[in-house]
Specification:
Elements lengths: L1 H12 L2 H84 L1
Amino acid sequence: NISEMLKRKYEDTESPTKKNWKKNVLKDYAESTKTVETILLDSRNSRTRLERSLDDTRDLIDVWGKYSNEYHEAINRFGKRIHDAEDEENIKKRTISIVK
């Protein structure tokens, strides 16, 4: 096999220092690759969690906005009912005072 012959040829002519250096470079490369893959995976997971949190926050804001609008509408309806009841009471009082 040609690749094995080339490998043997270069291995035979390399000094032990160069072989050791190559081995360390390849080892460092493998470790760096693992670290980068881990960081990328963690980044993707963080992004997914962040997107979920943003979606949850948007949903909460929508719910709060809807609640706030409905609350204000209810307060306005309640205020109108009080006003209408006061007007009705005043009309009754005027009617009673006219009748007397």
